[in-house]
Amino acid sequence: MTCATRTRKGLRKSVDNLPISSIQNAITVDNFNTPCTCVSAFARGMRRPYRGFGVRLTLMATLKPVAAFFDLDKTIIATSSAYAFGKEFFNNGLITRQDALDLYLSKASYMLVGHSSDQMDASRDHLSQLIKGWDVDEVTRITTDTMHHVVAPAIYSEARELIEEHRAAGHEVIIISASADILVEPIAAELGVDTVVATALEVVDGKLTGTILRYLKGDAKAEAIEQFAREHDYDLARSYAYSDSATDIPMLAAVGNPVAVNPDRALRKHAMSQGWQLRTFKNPEPLIQMPNAREVGIGAGVIAGLTALAVVGTLVTRAVIRENRSA
Fold first, then answer.
1. Quick check: 101 and 132 in contact, CB under 8 A?
2. CA atoms in the 13 A half-sphere facing the CB of 303
3. CA–centroid distance for 279 within its chain
4. In terms of C-beta density within 10 A (0-12 exposed, 13-18 middle, 19 or more buried), how is residue 15 classed?
5. 78 in a structural domain
6. pTM of the shown model
7. Residue 219 belongs to a domain with what CATH number?
8. Which residues span the membrane (predicted)?
9. What is the three-class DSSP state of 106?
10. Comparing 298 with 196, which gets the higher pLDDT?
């Protein structure tokens, strides 16, 4: 007996010559109220077809693979990858004491109150000039050697588990970040993630020029996801995306399964209005650790005061921006 499927138009297609793995990944089963022609033997490991009731098999084109896109900062890690290595860069002579302090204050502001789109652009411009002339091999060595005590303790255990769940389901895991690829790649390696889509920096003769070739923020992230899906034939309608920030709403909207993780206020409001899933990652708790006063050459009290000023300044700036936009 020829095992076949029945479609809604009554078309019958032989599946005898298709490999089992392809068929198992290519069928859908729907309930309906008439006996089916057959439930295929390959689905049950039998040689003869099973004649059942209330099941319809529809042979489809083989399903495209599914991807899971993860933002990095405050989604996978409870810190900022762009600022996390400031102390190590200072210890290795890449930045000055003042640069290290500036990075710390920017990190404190970002972690405590977040950054607006304008502040992200300002940070991008500042960091791109800061890294100008750096040797790529030296940066890679520093980030790789210090990753385990700088960033690894800040990786959310819930994120690790979720990444493993996606792998177990056969999904491709991709980290997509506005941070520079040279900083994201060591973190991805720690997580066993092979694919990184991040802000790309220009390198000439092994040194960073300070030029940004591709800046992944907002719509650019969504465009990168769509391009990646086209190139690798992923099914975005069945894929997943995770982020904490309202700036990533375009990225989340690009997939069929968007998830807001530890969302800021604007993203939470949007996610709830769209019926998107909300998740909270708690382990580890995000912490702002003060640098050792000896390391930056000023008193800890001064650091604390500057941190408070940085946070207040961020809040005031946001308030002014909101007021100007509403005017």
1. no
2. 22
3. 14
4. buried
5. yes
6. 0.68
7. 3.40.50.1000
8. 296-321
9. helix
10. 196
Contact by Cβ (8 Å): 147, 190? yes
DSSP string, 108-133: HHHHHH---HHHHHHHHHHHHHHTTT
CA distance 300 to 292: 7
In sequence order, what DSSP letters do the residues of 241-303 get, joined into one string? Answer: EEES-GGGHHHHHTSSEEEEES--HHHHHHHHHHT-EEE---SSPP--PPPPHHHHTS-HHHH
Q: Which sign, positive or negative, has the C-alpha torsion 124, 126, 129, 135?
A: negative
Is 108 inside a domain boundary?
yes
Question: Which domain, by its residues, includes 152?
Answer: 67-279
Amino acid at 235: D
pLDDT at 320 over 50: no
Q: What is the tally of structural domains in the chain?
A: 1
Q: What is the pLDDT of residues 189-219, one digit of tens each?
A: 999 999 999 999 999 999 999 999 999 989 9
Please report where in the chains the tokens 């008439």 appear, as a residue: 34
Residue 327 lies in a domain: no
Percent of the chain whose predicted confidence (pLDDT) is above 90 = 48
By annotation, the residues acting in catalysis are 71, 73
